[in-house]
Amino acid sequence: MSQVREQPISRPTVRFLSDELIKKIVSEARDILCRLGVEIHNSDILSMLRDHGADVAFDKNHVKLTQEIIDKALTSTPHSFELYDVMGNRTHEFTGYNVYFTPGSAALNILDAETQQIRKPTTTDYVRYAKLISLLGNIASQSTAFIPADVHENISDSYRLFLSLLLCEKPVVTGAFTIEAFEIMKHMQVVVRGNEEELVQKPLAVFSCCPTSPLKWSDVTSQNVVDCARSMIPVEFISMPLSGFMAPVTLVGTLVQHTAETLSGIVISQLTHPGAPILYGGSPAAFDVRYETTPMGDIVTQMIDCAYNEIGKYFGIPTQAYISLSDAKQLDAQAGLESSMGATLAALAGINNISGPGMLDFESCQSLEKLVLDNEICGMVFRLVQGIEPKEDFPALPRFEELLQEKHLLVSQHTRKYLKDELHFPGPVIDRTQTARWRAEGGLTVLQRAQREVEKLLTMYTPSRLPGTTKEELTRLMRAEARKYGMEKLPALVL
Question: Strand, helix or coil at 121?
């Protein structure tokens, strides 16, 4: 089946793969799915695939797809979709080379602002996070960023979504780690929208669904794909091959595996409900055999991300990647280096949903201070992808006649007209003062400036405009869910 790559218009881009190499990778991935197959631990899905002509071995939870099944799934996959905030306003159009940033998701830890120690987060931390993310203008969506440790683990998924919908108006990237959590999480979205039809028309959240490398879907994750497809809730597929460990060591070999795993998810989604919205995403890594770690800030990891994004664009599917994050344990030079390089490459590659701001320590730790710094990185990147275009620059002679006559152009009409469009002015986290002024103002480090900015922004927070009755219904649902697991009271919210 032929595919058409959508090309950007008047914007700088980066590419790692030729069209010929993309076609070869896709061909090999399809061949693997048809000849070696994929393991799926969900009997209903296996039955569905058998009914479409796949070769299914129920006793082994194994299925070999056909080229026709793969073609059918790709044909029905939408080439774009939109996201809306809790108030029903459109915030995202996932298509072409549009890029949006969202914080990294589901961290187990948070970097404590005062002690600078990594610790388990609480509800209070999540409240501060949700308030802060609502005020960061370069980060278009929130995520269920970390897991509060002061609630029962069986409600950790729904509780994070509850707090996000209650406190912040931005759409949410989230996910369910159990089959049971999906229904309450869907119900919360329906409460916000008013009914299921309106939720379909104006999606509020994207659910992450993760196959297990190599070539395996668990019962939970595959059922999440089915449940989301039936409800037309957007899904981002997060294939996670590890180069040199749970995937071939070569980048091309890793891309073949990532393609096969993602295609298998697309098949499950589209055969369940043709047209269900998806993001062609992932979180692969180049495995570091020296330390047995999965470095997300590594340049090779970033190259893989950008490359599979090109494969997603070859299919005509909007894309996602865990990139623009760091493996550092503090807000230090390594954190800035890895995050800014990832954000730059991701935006130049046109990854539609860039997941990563705020994240440290191999996707396991969130930092509010890093979020405000990363918000500045995102702003720089947005200016970068605007590129360079003439703005009343030709003919140049009049401008230089004015410069020679006035000796400067500070108050020139041309300067005043284009100053904010052409130049980029970051916020106070980025220091641009001269040394003497920097010292006079306290000689603050980037960490200290970020800490100050977090506290300043939190004082500016205004509550979500979600109607009070909707907030009350969300709270009622969450309390009822908590009581199922022996929690008579939810943690007190600092509202």
Answer: coil
3-state secondary structure of 362: coil
- 208: which 2 tokens? 């992450």
Tokens in use for 446?
A: 């980037």
Q: 311 near 305, Cβ under 8 Å?
A: no
pLDDT tens string 241-299: 999 999 999 999 999 999 999 999 999 999 999 999 999 999 999 999 999 999 999 99
Do residues 352 and 80 touch, judged by C-beta distance below 8 A? Answer: no
Choose among 470, 488, 445, 492: nearest CA to 165: 470
List, in sequence order, every beta strand (DSSP E) within 120-187.
142-143, 172-174
Among candidate residues 456, 394, 374, 313, the one with its CA nearest the CA of residue 137: 374
Torsion sign, CA atoms 347, 349, 353, 358: negative
Closest CA to 65 of 33, 40, 41: 33
Q: Tell me: the pLDDT tens digits for 103-134?
A: 999 999 999 999 999 999 999 999 999 999 99
Pick from 324, 421, 412: nearest CA to 373: 324
Tell me the pLDDT tens digit for each residue of 350-365: 999 999 999 999 999 9
CB 217 within 8 A of CB 252: no
Strands 62-64 and 55-57: antiparallel
Could you tell me the domains of the chain? Answer: 76-386 (3.20.20.480)
Backbone angles phi, psi at 285, to 5 degrees: -155, 155
**Block residue for tokens 């692969």:** 284
Residue 384 has, within 13 A of its CA and on its CB side, a CA count of 20
CA distances from 204 to 258, 273, 295, 331, 402 (A): 27, 19, 31, 31, 52
Whether residue 345 contacts residue 367, with contact meaning beta carbons closer than 8 Å, is answered with no
The DSSP bridge partners found for residue 353 are 100, 320
Q: What is the pLDDT of residues 458-474, one digit of tens each?
A: 999 999 999 999 999 99
| Cβ neighbours of 420 (radius 10 Å) | 9
Please give the C-alpha separations between residue 60 and each of 43, 45, 66, 111, 397, in angstroms, as whole numbers.
11, 14, 18, 43, 76
Cα torsion 388, 392, 395, 399: sign: negative
